[in-house]
Amino acid sequence: MAARNSGKRGRGGFDGRYVRLMEYMLASEAWQSLDPVARALYIEIARRYRGPNSNNGKLPYSVREAAAALNVGRSTANRAFHHLMERGFIAVGKRSGFSMKGRVSTEWLLTEFPDDTQTGINFQIPSKDFMRWSAKQAVHSPASTPLNSFHSPTSDSHSPVSEPRLALRRGRVA
User: Reduced to 3 states, what is the DSSP secondary structure of residue 67?
Assistant: First the structure.
């Protein structure tokens, strides 16, 4: 005799864990502005979330882990973390670094879900900061100033040379 639920696998027809990406989030201006590396990083961080009242705000993920998982360089992974933070998809739950004892990774909070590290009624509501992000506001935000960007704070170039570049003209060799 065949089992009653022989056509279904698990609850809801799914077998095992999965990452759910809500349509409103994918349609948001913030998500549309992300590059593919930042989108992939969000999915990798979301894979560590275990559900309501579990570990949101305590999701460890380092830049080195992200670089290895996404098969990109550390600076590219670091930029992806910054893009996700700027647009409001993730927030730092607990900072970390090489100077801290135990060398643990930074712990992240997915703003799509409530913060599980805090108690009280105000912390049971997810902030969903990405829904308030706007490309127009981002152009004029303090995060886009040279002091907070990846460029040198003293000049607009990546080069250590402080002299201005020579303008090249046709027929003239520099």
Answer: helix
98-151 pLDDT, tens per residue? 666 666 789 999 999 998 888 766 667 899 999 999 988 777 655 544 444 444
Give me the amino acid identity at 96. S
Range(s) of the domain holding residue 57: 19-131
The token pair at 130 is 């990405």
Residue 137: strand, helix, or coil: helix
Is the overall model pTM greater than 0.85, yes or no? no
Length of the chain: 174
Report the alpha-carbon distance of residue 141 to residue 135 in Å, rounded.
10
CATH number at residue 97: 1.10.10.10
Element (H, E) at 108: strand 107-110
Coil vs helix vs strand at 147: coil
- Six-digit token pair at 42? 């969000």
Residue 147 corresponds to which amino acid?
L
